[in-house]
């Protein structure tokens, strides 16, 4: 039987709503304050809570926040205050529905049934594997990573994920959570490098109202939000040393307190941390606490760079190209042999992320169904990475010659002119004189070339 709790200081409201819900087959418990609900939560959990907003002691919105953070619910808020601020605050805090008082009993019971049905649906529909595990790879190095994920996920150990930028550390963290017993509980992330250091502490541990200027309300930190689940700390190597000390104490003692707070909080959170930096070297240099590293680095998963697993490039490239076509609603494309060869040889300082971005751009920019090495070349030029574009040009020419295409030199020159002109005009807001100066050619030359590429276009297309 569904257990529904009602919190309202108005006895009359509690009574009629409880009776209506019992008639509808619910087991109902009634509470006159938010504090009483909190106390009862120590022993059991409701399937659903209906709560008033204004009650003596803890109000309904705080109660709602408390339950949402712990994944208890759904919660329906009812109130005589139907102003936008109160209603919006309730939804923002995770309310499943908002009932205005006085209410129609039948409609209230329907709202309860609806919220319960939606919550059941959320639990029943399992995410497909494709959604949760987009981690691809066939290379020996990646197969070893998959094996490690499987083994480590089943344990409850803290994990340190290492690897260069864009190698998939975040995907691995997510996979560790999804494959663990904590799946279904919160997965919360905090990027240490993306948040100003003076805000990091309250982001991580939360703060009490009035803890510092601007802290108007109590705020739950990521630690609390992740209760029962996984907390992913990205770029942990950048964490300021003072905060490292606090994190270390929280991990060692299993306890922490909010900024400006006195009450110790106990947390059951698994920590997965990631870094692109050599954490051992940072410890030696005195930038990272050895004891904290010891707590985070219980199990380690290292992600190889893309240059160390080039045999994964075709699989990844085809996947990203198809994905971009679907997402951007474009016709599907494929790589020519020359283009794929170039992709496999190219350098990727940004690793898989760079390959992904490149494939997305090709999905948009390449003119034909089959992507040629030349299409890649025109992208590489803009990246100004050494002689990469001449390499692309070389492969394009090889491709074109092998297929017996005529007039190669003219086409290459035209492509070169057109690309340079477009880039220069774009960079100079269409101002021809400035564009010409930037390219190091006279204005007349630019005008002639512009005219030439315009004139040639109809006969080409
Ligand atoms: N093995 C993989 N299979 C499919 N996609 C991948 C793989 N590895 C990385 N990606 C994709 O590459 C991009 C970068 O991955 P992710 O953000 O996980 O890297 P990261 O190592 O956390 O990077 P950073 O250190 O810069 O934060 C994402 O879009 C991700 O989906």
UniProtKB/TrEMBL annotation:
The residues covered by the Sigma-54 factor interaction domain are 135-364
Chain ranges of the Response regulatory domain: 3-116
**4-aspartylphosphate carried by residues:** 52
GO CC terms in record: cytoplasm
Q: Which SMART domains match?
A: AAA, REC
Q: Might you name a Gene Ontology BP term for this protein?
A: regulation of DNA-templated transcription
Q: Which keywords has UniProt assigned to this entry?
A: Activator, ATP-binding, Cytoplasm, DNA-binding, Nitrogen fixation, Nucleotide-binding, Phosphoprotein, Repressor, Transcription, Transcription regulation, Two-component regulatory system
Q: What does this protein do?
A: Member of the two-component regulatory system NtrB/NtrC, which controls expression of the nitrogen-regulated (ntr) genes in response to nitrogen limitation. Phosphorylated NtrC binds directly to DNA and stimulates the formation of open promoter-sigma54-RNA polymerase complexes.
Q: Name the chain's protein.
A: DNA-binding transcriptional regulator NtrC
